[in-house]
């Protein structure tokens, strides 16, 4: 996407060329401002990393555990990256051969030879893939070094631990957001320097960038997601349920694999995912801004800083958002007595970031989107930004409502656990299916209100730019959100290290407090990710449709309805919906199979241990073989990520190419239209399905925690003979939690990537469909 | 739908009026032929009923149980019908007031006053609702009288029992299919006789008929579905799992409620559902046939029996299908030694019906669709019919693959049960999500191949008629399929009666054989219903779009793309997808809550019983209170069917009316277009979701049966002390089966109705959206 978006960015630049010199200077100035702030973000990330790494690494037993996690995570990431690099290399060969040798040159191609086209598209794909790999790797690198330091800090104070975990997460957040701004610009400069192609055509050559990033993000999220949940499910089922030992108990052979999983799933996968999406959404707004300003100028309307100001608006607004996020992150601290809820401390920082970002946003709209001929424009767009912020706040509240134990949904799941696992599952699925409704209403309201706010600015065709500005508003504090997201696995790991190194109860309580907050932030950021994906979807559709028009030699204003009442388009849409279901099936089943392999291994290790009252009595000298579990799950996850990944990549390609048989002289774009149907309905169903999977999983998780906190008797109850026995209500809740694991941490987050991948892959391959 | 379709039927008749007299005569002749065969179907149903009712009702203990079921079912249906009649009455007031007093008269309205319009639309709604109620009631009436006779017949021979159950089902099948042909015709004749309106405009007045039928079908299916599964889940969870007693054991207080549920859910609900859909699909094809033939005639092409022949083709083909079904039903019998699989006997009858129907179908295409100017037309349409038949065969095989224990999917669920209920659930959900893919491919292939076969006939605009003919082919043997569907609950009940009246083991084995077949046929007919809904969807969309054009005063040839790239349409589509999720949530949750009420009641009745080794030891004189359970579940089901039902009805209305705010002079149909987006994407997601729910539920059910048949140790294993204990693998499989119950018998079948309701409600209310 990132790339396609460039399309009109470039159109904007093309227009700048022909415009007066001052405009060009202000372009350079605004670009320098944005890039300067991005570099500031990187520098800030560097100092935060230095601050975190300067903390103590604690005692030797803690380090031993931390090192085991580090080794496991790095070994998995190395092997995963090898697999992904192989797949990406194979795909770049396909791309190069497809564009260079199979597809023949057409009249409206941006360059003169098929080979040059193939070379640039393939290069940008490779560059995007590489950036994505780096973003993922850096996220995990800092995360596996922050966990031990957070654990050590917890020995002295919750405040230190909180700041250590958040700042560790912020390194990854700032890096991803800043790098995504810089990456695309670099590629653009490179093509500009080495090729003779007109600037306005460059975007068509570098469309591969976004696709490369999503390609890697998809496999990283799938592989990491399968790993983390297979290990988690395996560890829970035999550890907690069968052996009756607590979470993160060192006697559980799968426990290190479980802790490794938090890093490779949540950090590495999510980092790559968000790298890709921030870049995409940035440039999506730039493309629309450039074409909006150009057609406004045609209609005699001018902007205070010219076309370029409108085009650069998203970058400038995002840059100020980085500053706001940094201030917010630095503001997070506990009260002196450390009695407040750490979530409250995080929320305070977040609200500071949001308020600052909105003030800056308002300033930017007045500065860059102000036209004397359309005096309402700037504040209409400012309202669009507010709509975006309100949408993200609404998503946060909705997610909390459906996944926190103080509200009805989680309580109803806990209540249903009294009648066993079956009613627990039925209740959880009911909650998950239900929770899609209010977010859909919010999304619909946000999309339509920002569209109509944009449309009523007095500028021509400015509705879609309104949705783009709303997306910008929502994403203004993306760096803060990402920091909160990575906060989750860091605190989870810190808790694990404290538990496994058998620290005193009071220390565990401190890390438990942070861990609970981490679970909440992880759930919230998923809601946020889905909300922004929905708002941004429209930019991405538009980019695809513009690209199809360009390659077909049609004007950007020509009609290209995606008419669902044509059978071919309807079938494309049906395949889009089915793709989401099948993809989720493969992701969930992968976790199930890999978890069974781990369960078998743990049972093997436990088989000879003595038992009493259905509970294992561990000998003092019992030493579990952690390495065997890590190894089994690594192999399993890597083998099983390939099928869903390839399915996602191949389906739109197959539809686009096979449906070319339906092309007639009256309807030359029917294959491209069917792909658009697949893309749009796939996006809708992907959003709804991801909401279902994320929130049902989160609700099951917290229903279990609610019972563990004492509801319905807690974990253990008194048996008929007065002895402590496992509470069947808790057992039922654990079943739900386990089912929810692959929902919320494998299939759900992978769907976020799938949605964006559908957009980027159709962009790259659009020329093959017409 | 049924009604809208009439629209062009009437256009056809209008053209007949102006055509030569011989054409009119042939219309009367063809109509007489179809009606004659329909009446033959009704007569045949009467004799089959007489045949079934002539069988012995067995011993007194059996009759006691049968009477308890009959009373429970009739009491529920009476109370349900009272609720539905109240809801329908309220809605008809809304319809009448909305059309008569709120909406103002428009230029293109079919009649001169709003009051007349309101009166006819409301009357047809009421008539449709009444027919649907009757169809449902008759289906259940014969079913609760066939069960005892099937059970008694099983005392002497499997063959007798098989034929008793199938013919009992066939009564309902023939009645529904024949009545649906006769009902619409009667209404048409009534309007024609009493009103001065032009015949071509009549369909616009009787559009309420189909909606009335779906309105009732929706609540009947929801109420029955919630009842049956709440009782089933409740009975299973406390009976099988907690108390460890077999299915249908008389000591289970919920067992009568469970047997009642099979009747009110599967017979009454399904009868109403299929009544509505066969009528809809019939007339959908007629409307397209009439407009096809009319435009062919304009282009100088004539048919051997004229326009009227093309228009009447669906009725004639369906009529011959009834005969083919009757022959097939009469052919079903076992071999002399009764060693064959009863499924084989049913299949033989089905194949006879299919082959006969196809021969007649080919004859009809040659007779009625033959044009000397387009010599390829008739055999192209014949091939479309074959495509339809092959599609239904493909659906049968796919459903078998995903839900029978000889294949991988069910085996994988059984295998996953070894590691507990959580992995069983994960595996089942994986299977359910996965099983959507191949049906989507088949549907896509069928839709596109019949569309392009139709398009290449040489006739103008005949693509959509090709899909209609494929639907006709698929539905040719609908009466047989419906008979097989009702066969399920009859054999299930017969097994229950045999079990509860404590007949000898060998008799139980006979009814178990039939019960297993009944489970398969129920699963197969669900696949068939979804396949035909998908194929028919296109007719229904077209009818809606034609109606919008008519009320907007546009020609039927004018462009009306449903453009998903417009934000308003996209949001409509998003709401369509979400509606399916929320509706499923409410249906599933209703079962969960009602089941918990039953579980609490059974636990209350069991509370004081002595236990040994975690199993209840029943005193000899234990008398469960069946009535209390029947009463609780009746109240619960009726209360909980209202919310999902109203949601389904109100959502499209709300979108259509609220989205009128987006109407602009450039885009007067935007609200109607958004509703079309909701309708189409809702249909897609509804189909895929129904496949997921039906097949995962079926697979879980059979995985449990597979284990009960001995896999992984069977129901009981030897404990450490040598005593018989419950097998935890079976326990895990029962959890999956229980979760699947509301999926496959409440939410899934209700979605079939929802899909069609969306079409009919949008048809009735289309004038309010423009």
Keywords, please?
homodimer, two-stranded antiparallel sheet, mainly alpha, about 775 residues, two-stranded antiparallel ribbon
Summed up, the helix count of chain A is 22
Quaternary organization: homodimer
The residue ranges of chain A in which pLDDT falls below 50 over 5 or more consecutive positions are 1-25
Strand residues, percent of chain A: under 5%
How helix-rich are the residues of chain A, as a percent range?
over 70%
Greatest contact pair?
A-B, 78 and 78 residues
Main sheet: strand order of chain A: 1-2
**Alpha-carbon distance between the termini of chain A?**
19 Å
* Mean pLDDT over all positions of chain A: 84
Shape of chain A: globular
Task: Indicate the radius of gyration of chain A in whole angstroms.
Answer: 26 Å
Compute the number of strand runs of chain A. Answer: 4
Q: Give the SSE order of chain A as H and E letters.
A: HHHHHHHHHHHHHHHHHHEEHHHEEH
Class computed from helices, strands and strand pairing of chain A: mainly alpha
Biggest beta-sheet profile of chain A:
2 strands, antiparallel
């Amino acid at each position: 996407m990132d790339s396609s978006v460039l399309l009109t960015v470039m159109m904007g630049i093309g227009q700048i060329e022909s415009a007066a010199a001052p405009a060009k200077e202000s372009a350079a100035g605004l670009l320098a401002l944005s890039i300067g702030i991005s570099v500031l973000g990187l520098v800030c990330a560097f100092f935060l990393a230095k601050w975190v790494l300067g903390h103590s690494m604690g005692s030797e037993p803690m380090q031993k555990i931390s090192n085991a996690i580090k080794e496991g995570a790095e070994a998995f990431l190395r092997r995963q990256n090898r697999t992904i690099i192989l797949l990406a290399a194979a795909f770049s060969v396909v791309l190069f051969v497809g564009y260079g040798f199979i597809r023949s040159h057409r009249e409206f191609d941006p360059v003169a030879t098929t080979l040059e086209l193939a070379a640039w598209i393939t290069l940008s794909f490779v560059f995007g893939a590489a950036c994505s790999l780096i973003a993922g790797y850096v996220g995990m690198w800092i995360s596996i070094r922050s966990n031990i330091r957070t654990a050590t800090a917890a020995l002295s104070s919750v405040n230190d631990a909180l700041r250590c975990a958040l700042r560790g997460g912020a390194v990854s957040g700032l890096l991803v957001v800043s790098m995504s701004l810089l990456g695309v610009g670099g590629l653009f400069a490179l093509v500009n320097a080495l090729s003779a192609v007109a600037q306005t055509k460059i975007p068509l050559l570098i469309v591969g960038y976004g696709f490369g990033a999503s390609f890697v993000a998809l496999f990283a999220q799938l592989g990491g997601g399968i790993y983390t949940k297979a290990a988690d499910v395996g560890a829970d089922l035999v550890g907690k349920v069968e052996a009756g030992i607590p979470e993160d108990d060192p006697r559980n052979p799968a426990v290190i694999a479980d802790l490794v999983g938090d890093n490779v799933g949540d950090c590495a996968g999510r980092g790559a995912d968000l790298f890709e999406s921030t870049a995409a959404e940035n440039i999506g707004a730039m493309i629309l801004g450039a074409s909006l300003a150009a057609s406004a100028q045609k209609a005699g309307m001018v902007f205070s800083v010219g076309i370029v100001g409108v085009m650069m608006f998203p970058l400038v607004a995002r840059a100020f958002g980085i500053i706001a996020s940094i201030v917010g992150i630095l503001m997070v601290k506990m009260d002196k007595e450390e009695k407040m809820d750490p979530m409250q401390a995080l929320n305070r920082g977040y609200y500071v970031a949001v308020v600052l970002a909105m003030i800056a946003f308002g300033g930017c709209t007045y500065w860059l989107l102000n036209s004397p001929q359309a005096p309402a424009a700037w504040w209409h767009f400012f309202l669009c930004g507010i709509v975006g912020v309100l949408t993200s706040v609404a998503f946060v509240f909705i997610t909390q409502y459906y996944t926190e134990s103080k509200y009805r949904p989680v309580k109803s799941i806990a209540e249903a656990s009294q009648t066993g696992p079956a009613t627990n599952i039925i209740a959880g699925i009911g909650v998950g299916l239900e929770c899609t409704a209010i977010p859909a209403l919010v999304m619909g309201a946000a999309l339509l209100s920002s569209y109509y706010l944009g449309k009523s600015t007095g500028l021509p065709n400015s509705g879609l730019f309104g949705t783009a500005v709303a997306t910008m508003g929502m994403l203004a504090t993306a760096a803060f959100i990402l920091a909160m997201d990575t906060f989750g696995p860091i605190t989870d790991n810190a808790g694990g290290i404290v538990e496994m190194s058998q620290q005193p109860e009071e220390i565990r309580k401190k890390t438990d407090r942070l861990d609970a907050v981490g679970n909440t932030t992880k759930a919230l950021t998923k809601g946020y990710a889905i909300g922004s994906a929905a708002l941004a979807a429209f930019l991405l559709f538009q980019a695809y449709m513009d690209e199809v028009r360009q390659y077909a030699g049609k004007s950007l204003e020509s009609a290209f309805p995606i008419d669902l009442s044509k059978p071919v388009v309807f079938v494309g849409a049906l395949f889009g919906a089915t793709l989401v279901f099948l993809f989720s099936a493969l992701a969930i089943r992968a976790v199930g199979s890999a978890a069974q392999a781990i369960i078998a291994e743990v049972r093997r290790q436990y088989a000879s241990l003595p038992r009493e009252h259905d509970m294992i009595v561990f000998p003092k000298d019992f030493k579990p073989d952690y390495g065997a579990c890590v190894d089994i799950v690594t192999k399993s996850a890597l083998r099983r990520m390939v099928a869903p990944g390839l399915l996602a990549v191949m389906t739109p390609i197959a539809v686009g190419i096979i449906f070319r048989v339906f092309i007639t002289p009256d309807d030359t774009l029917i294959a491209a239209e069917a792909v658009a149907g697949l893309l749009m309905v796939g996006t809708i169903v992907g959003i709804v399905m991801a909401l279902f999977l994320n929130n049902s999983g989160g609700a099951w998780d917290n229903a279990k925690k609610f019972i563990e906190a004492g509801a319905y008797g807690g974990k253990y109850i008194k048996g008929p003979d007065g002895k402590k026995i496992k509470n069947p209500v808790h057992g039922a809740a654990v079943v739900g939690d386990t089912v929810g694991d692959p929902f919320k941490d494998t299939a759900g987050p992978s769907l976020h990537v799938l949605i964006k991948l559908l957009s980027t892959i159709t962009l790259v391959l659009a020329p093959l469909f017409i």
